[in-house]
Design a protein that fits this description.
With about 80 residues, the protein is mainly alpha-helical. The chain has helices spanning about 40-55, 55-65, 65-75; strands spanning about 20-25, 25-30. Strands 1-2 form a two-stranded antiparallel sheet. The relative contact order is 0.12.
C-alpha cells in the first residue's frame, strides 16, 4: 500500500458546521484556533470582497446604488477578529 502523504505547513481545516449567527453588524462565527494577524485579516477581507464582486449581491448593489456607491459600500465588507 502507498504511504499517505502529509502536507507540510498546512493549516487545520475548518469544520463544515461552525456555530454562526447574524446580528445587526454582520455574520458572526466561532472558529477554532488563534486569532488571525492584522495582515491575515486584510487578506481575508480582500478575498471576501472579491467573492462579493462575483456574486448576485454585487449585481443588485450596482443596480440599486450605481458603481461608485457600490464600491464604497463594498469596502465596508470586512473580516474582523474578536476575542
Amino acid at each position: 500500500m502507498p504511504k499517505s502523504r502529509k502536507r507540510k505547513h498546512s493549516r487545520p481545516s475548518v469544520p463544515a458546521l461552525v456555530p454562526s449567527w447574524m446580528e445587526e453588524d454582520g455574520l458572526h462565527a466561532i472558529l477554532p484556533g488563534e486569532q488571525p494577524s492584522p495582515a491575515e485579516l486584510e487578506t481575508l477581507s480582500r478575498s471576501y470582497q472579491e467573492k462579493i464582486r462575483h456574486s448576485l449581491l454585487w449585481d443588485q448593489m450596482l443596480e440599486e446604488f450605481g458603481p461608485q456607491e457600490a464600491e464604497r459600500i463594498l469596502l465596508k465588507f470586512r473580516v474582523e477578529g474578536r476575542s
